[in-house]
Amino acid sequence: MFNHLLSLLIWLPVAGAVPVLLAGSDRPNLARWLSLLVAILTFAVSLFLIPQYNGDTGGMQLAESHVWIAALNVHYALAVDGISVALILLTTFVGILVIIGAWEVIQDKPHQYMAAMLVLEGLMIGVFCATDALLFYVFFEAMLIPMFILIGIWGGPRRVYATLKFFIYTFMGSIFMLIGLIYLYLKAGTFDLHTLATLPLTLQEQSWLFFAFLIAFAVKVPMVPVHTWLPDAHVEAPTGGSVVLAAVMLKIGGYGFLRFSLPIVPDASAHFAWLVILLSLIAVVYIGYVALVQEDMKKLVAYSSVAHMGFVTLGIFIAFMLVREQGNTDAARLGMQGAMVQMISHGFVSGAMFSCIGVLYDRMHTRLIKDYGGVINVMPWFGFFYVLFAMANCGLPGTSGFVGEFMVILASFSANPWIALFAAFTLIIGAAYTLWLVKRVLWGEVTNSHVAEMKDINGRETLVLGAFAALVLIIGVWPEPLTHLMDSSVTQLVQLLAIHKV
Amino acid sequence: MELSSSILLTIALAPLVGCLLAGFLGKQIGRVGAHSVTILGLLISCGLSFYVLYQITAGGAPVYNHNLYTWFEIGKYTASVGFLIDRLTAMMMVVVTFVSLLVHVYTIGYMADDDGYQRFFSYISLFTFSMLMLVMSNNFVQLFFGWEAVGLVSYLLIGFWYKRPTAIFANLKAFLVNRVGDFGFLLGIGAILYFLGTLDYATAFAAAPTLAGKTLAITQNVHWDAATVICILLFIGAMGKSAQVPLHVWLPDSMEGPTPISALIHAATMVTAGIFMVARMSPLYELSESALSFVLVIGATGALFTGLIGIVQNDIKRVVAYSTLSQLGYMTVALGVSAYAGAVFHLMTHAFFKALLFLGAGSVIIAMHHEQDMRYMGGLRKYMPITWITMWVGSLALCGVPFFSGFYSKDSIIDAVHESHRWGSGYAYFCVVVGAFVTATYTFRQMYMTFHGKERFKVVEHHGHHDAHGHDDHHDDHGHHEPGVLHHAPKESPWVVTLPLILLAIPSLLVGFFTVQPMLFGNWFGGAVHVSEANNVLGEIGKEFDGSLAMALHGFAQLPFILVLVAFLITTYIYLFNPSVADKIKTALKPIWVILDRKYWVDNIYFAVFARGGVALGRMFWKGGDAAVIDGVLIDGSASTIQRIASGVRRLQSGYLYHYAFAMILGLILLMGGYLLVRQ
């Protein structure tokens, strides 16, 4: 089993989707239980990664490789390092919660919804395992299909506009990546990422490739100014779709930078680091203000996601400044680790925030902030979780939201105090938009009769929110196991940054 | 004998356990269960804190500095959770747990009829845990954890009555203003990591001398002194938490919270976290004259100008709140002249007498059925003698009347400022001396308006009203009934309220007399507080010190006491004998009164600029940037461009055969022409 652990992880949920589909719409409960079983099994299998992965060496491990398309020298090649392991665990964990979260919420064709979720989960795991660029690309694109279906079928009234925008945006982005990959293939004769990392490239070639990758991954993260698909997609997506989108899919953008931009085009990445840093800071400050004035809760959290993901790109590219300009590898590792922790943490925090909004939406069928007020009076337990996740969203120490931002800000200060100044602005603006939301939704007198009729969270919802809460707190109080898991991989990445190809 | 880790952990965690039990099992264990477990937790915590203080001072225990576990370890950077227990910490632990314990007991009486009884106990225990983590920390990460955690609890408690619009406005404001401070604080930690390469106190302080001569490039040509940058950034954090001008605006509004937390959080402990932090960081602050001057001027401004606002307040709690702002200014002034021990000493005495004043005010508020306006009080002394006497003790301590504890701490600060030659000390001396007069004025005014003179309320017995006890009016009813009309005569509060008053009155009276010598002049803090020889103003004053008794007797002839005396005579005349004078003065000095009543318009300006301005900026970014430029021009614009091109291209596909034939012929001619051209 351990020889094919990664394959098992990818294909277990995909294959598991088949019986779920076969359960049909006549037996919705069978479909639900089956899909839950598959999700739990996948999570259980993913836990084997922890003992199987050797954290001391840090290299790519648990490798599998088979020739896939011999004519093009494409391999079905999988392997993981500490960063992938952390992201896979995030994916399988969230995978269970979205199944439970959708339990009785999705009444229309639940078997298809659950099946799409499972397929999506498998493909996302594939993205995190692939070490062949074309295989990565296939997973990267294939992932769009189930998400397209999830939003397009179970989405809100403007779902067609949102799905098209989502699809075209991300597809347009990845086309450039494909062109870049073809260029690399013509040069190197392989799609193997490890070989591509050692391929000598001139600065001009690197620059073209850098922008090809940047466009693809910037759309995914998303970075300003290609972020506007995200609020629309979130608003129209069903709760589970939003949770997966925010918790896992956005991370694939950040992950792409690590696997493609950093090793393959390090010099261009260093050369244009200022651009990414600038865009990241704009994400923190500008998007923070945009989030402040949103009237739709989901849009607010979507914009807040863009701002938080700014710390991921900031942390990754600040490392270039630190290594190349100062030779300060320790601070670079701190920044890079901060970016990674932020990815994982944002997975839990944004997943939890969207789940909370889902809880409200299921009761009121509106996401507009003005329709709420005084919810705490009727839903005290919900209020507890909502405040907890809001605080995590503001980066309160003791929650996971603090850890990554803290590391990135500290590392930024070592690179340039001005960068840290703008990054730290999140402390103010992040608290402003999050707590203003809490004030208008939670506090105050019950504003209308619909709010008065709301019931507090049930056992199923408590389970989902409680699971998110546990992880948010555990990582916040003791992040060391997580950073330790990724430490050697991050160290290796930082060493790569210092290697000049030209 | 070294302190044991398990004792220290118990001190910190006992309140947390109480918090969790009262919070999550509140329904199951009931009201009595909730206050029992939290008070038990505090009793354990407080008892052990006294034991630790004893061990550290008399038991010969060495300074405890150990990490409990590693928070993260990345390269050479390590962040841990651990405790540093020296005399400064031990004193803070005793103050925090002692005041917190009394506030817990007091709450049994004050919140007796509140629906959120268990929740309240859970919050104040959580606060105690957070505050202990803050003071016991041995590193910057945990300090920041405690720093923000007390902010969270403050947010929850100010908004405790979450139905009140004013309360939920105040708690958001408090959190955001504090976040402005934390913004600076976090950057300060970033600067420490950059320059000193560590997040651990002891390592950072040991490396502090290496800061000399280091600079931070602000622009290519502007370089700032490293120590100054670090200290000012950290102090910005203190300005938020300790409500220093211009980040003071949240503290008066925080009075929306229930009175017990005003005493515990917004007077005795949390707001003094900034003072504690600067004292803890004294090895860094001693390196920067400029930063200390900055601290000095900010503190002095707060000490005088926020005190002035207190004179025009009519809400009994707000008077105490502005007094707290002013006293925090005094402590900051002491820090600014390197009299760290003086600041911490005043922090301690202030914790006792200000908690006493707040709890006393709360006792009055209970008696007045949640009326807080002093214009409807007066003559209460005969109804509630214990509250009356204990509040006088607190007031005299606050005014700095000799022998009371506040005298020793406050006069020492004034002397220290007088002794200092630091830039800004002249201005500061003016502020703190005039401030003494201001303090006495608002304090006596408050006492007279509340307890003395004629009764300005009516008692109308409501016989149909069946509630027998005096606390029946729900908090939310506050303001709904006619002001100045009570349904029952005011009466002394129950013992759970008066006992804490008495227990706080004792240290308010005595603690200064007994501790001034060691704490200020006897190097009691040892290595916990560092003052360089050139800055040692307390050492200079100490040369003339010959005992608490002599100091008090000498104090009667000093300028501050004379000013207090003058204030006493003026307020006595006005409020006891000729109340109409107050209105005459108000009319005569109308412009000044307006300035003070409007609190220098600071709140209005902030609201207009930051709140409204922020929302306007957000709208502009959203509608102008995201919607118009990105979606409008880039996305939908390129979509429509493609549509235009497509509709142009579509015309080529007309479906007419002769069009295609013509195109083919044209193409052939071009191709062949081209071929011929190339061949030649």
Automatic annotation (TrEMBL), chain A:
Top-level division of the source organism's lineage: Bacteria
One Pfam family in the UniProt entry: Proton_antipo_M
InterPro entries: NADH_Q_OxRdtase_chainM/4, NADH_UbQ_OxRdtase, ND/Mrp_TM
Transmembrane regions listed in the UniProt entry: 33-50, 85-106, 113-128, 134-154, 166-186, 206-230, 242-260, 272-293, 300-323, 343-362, 374-398, 418-438, 459-478
Main location, first listed in the record: membrane
Domain NADH:quinone oxidoreductase/Mrp antiporter transmembrane residue range list: 130-427
Membrane topology: Multi-pass membrane protein
Keyword annotations of the record: Membrane, Oxidoreductase, Transmembrane, Transmembrane helix
One of the record's GO molecular function terms: oxidoreductase activity
Presence of keyword Membrane: yes
Compartment list: Endomembrane system; Membrane
Family: Belongs to the complex I subunit 4 family.
Protein name as annotated: NADH-quinone oxidoreductase subunit M
Protein's organism: Dyella acidiphila
Automatic annotation (TrEMBL), chain B:
Localization terms from the record: Endomembrane system; Membrane
The organism's place on the tree of life at top rank: Bacteria
InterPro entries, per database record: NADHpl_OxRdtase_5_subgr, ND/Mrp_TM, NU5C-like, Proton_antipo_N
Domain NADH-Ubiquinone oxidoreductase (complex I) chain 5 N-terminal: residue ranges: 71-121
Primary subcellular site in the record, as a coarse category: membrane
Topology relative to the membrane: Multi-pass membrane protein
Pfam families xref list: Proton_antipo_M, Proton_antipo_N
Spans annotated as Disordered: 465-484
Keywords: Membrane, Transmembrane, Transmembrane helix
Stretches assigned to the NADH:quinone oxidoreductase/Mrp antiporter transmembrane domain: 137-423
Parts of the chain that traverse the membrane: 6-25, 37-56, 88-108, 120-137, 143-162, 183-202, 222-240, 261-279, 291-312, 319-341, 347-367, 388-407, 427-444, 495-516, 556-576, 657-678
PANTHER family given in the database record: NADH-UBIQUINONE OXIDOREDUCTASE CHAIN 5
Protein name per UniProt: NADH-quinone oxidoreductase subunit L
Lineage: Bacteria, Pseudomonadati, Pseudomonadota, Gammaproteobacteria, Lysobacterales
